[in-house]
Amino acid sequence: MELELRHLRVLCAIADSGSVGRAATALGFTQPALSTQLRRIERLLGEGLFVRRNTGVELTAYGVEVVSQARDILARADALGRRHGNDRPAATRTLRLGVTNTPVLPELLGNLREGCPHLAVSVSSVYATGELVRLLEAGELDAALGMDYPGLPLRHSADLAHRAINTVPVFVAVHSGHPLAHRVEVPLRELSEDTWFVSSDDGVGWPGAFYDACQAAGFTPASTHEFHILEQLQAMIAMGLGVAVVQPTIRPVDGVLVKPLVGDPLWQRHLLVWRRDAVEPAVAEALHHHAVRVYRNLLARAPHLRSWVARAYTAARLPDKRR
């Protein structure tokens, strides 16, 4: 077996849907046939790409790397032959883009300006992904950057489409003088007595996913504050006023340490969502391609995330060494 573009599309479909069964339906396969194909791909690549859980599948650290590269290859392949006719410049059009709390936006806009010079982007900042979906359904936005959570896939009408940008674990930010500051990874249950800063309802599963993880760890947070303004949040954590779960791309200020949670009990999936009737396939592909590249670069520059990936990659290979 040789790796082909159709195999890369299978991996991306499984990563996007979070389920082999849903990916099989989308691709027109039976679930057993797609499971067999996935096992063959994993054998060819030498290790597992997905972890099977009760709620579906999640990418391994190696899987994140492979799927990111697969998307890059597919975007390049899909772009072949798109240019046709004469070389007259295309008419400028405006894309109404809604964004939640994402670090991708500044660099993404720069890349779009350079890579899609005839696409003008008008940005609206909206915290809740649920509100972004409502605005898309109402035709008030063309596309959006949002998120959902494993076991809680984003729901929308057939008028919209979505594609995963990346799936990443959620980390915890603590004061540099915190009793657990020396730990490489922090057990969620050992933060049961801390005050938590928890961002508000995003309409698609947060903060329910956080409280479910706490309950699974055996506790309910004793004290919480609803907060999501990042600069002020970090300032309060640096003062030792509480802890918060954060995206792995965060750049901590002095006095704040970012740590993985033992067992990775919380994950987020970053998404591109768009109106099928308002965004041409080529524009959707360009948006997704640049968002994936930007996010991958941000992850590569996050030292706490690089350390987590290195440990996860080593752990995944240990059974092979024992054999």
Structure explained in plain terms:
The strands form four sheets. Strands 4-3-5-12-6 form a five-stranded mixed sheet, with helices on both faces. Strands 10-7-11 form a three-stranded antiparallel sheet. Helix 7 links the parallel strand 8 and strand 9. It is 41% helix and 21% strand. Helix 1 crosses helix 2, helix 4 packs antiparallel against helix 9 and helix 5 packs across helix 9. The chain has three domains: 73 residues, Arc Repressor Mutant, subunit A; 109 residues, Periplasmic binding protein-like II (D-Maltodextrin-Binding Protein, domain 2), CATH 3.40.190.10; 99 residues, D-Maltodextrin-Binding Protein, domain 2 (3-Layer(aba) Sandwich). The chain is an alpha/beta fold and 323 residues long. The chain has ten helices and twelve strands. About 2% of the residues have low confidence.
Q: Which terms summarize this structure?
A:
three-stranded antiparallel β-sheet, five-stranded mixed β-sheet, alpha/beta, D-Maltodextrin-Binding Protein, domain 2, 12 strands, 21% strand, 3 domains, 10 helices, 323 residues, Arc Repressor Mutant, subunit A, globular, single chain
Short description:
With 323 residues, the protein is of the alpha/beta class. It has 10 helices and 12 strands. The strands form 4 sheets. Strands 4-3-5-12-6 form a 5-stranded mixed sheet, with helices on both faces. Strands 10-7-11 form a 3-stranded antiparallel sheet. Strands 1-2 form a two-stranded antiparallel ribbon.
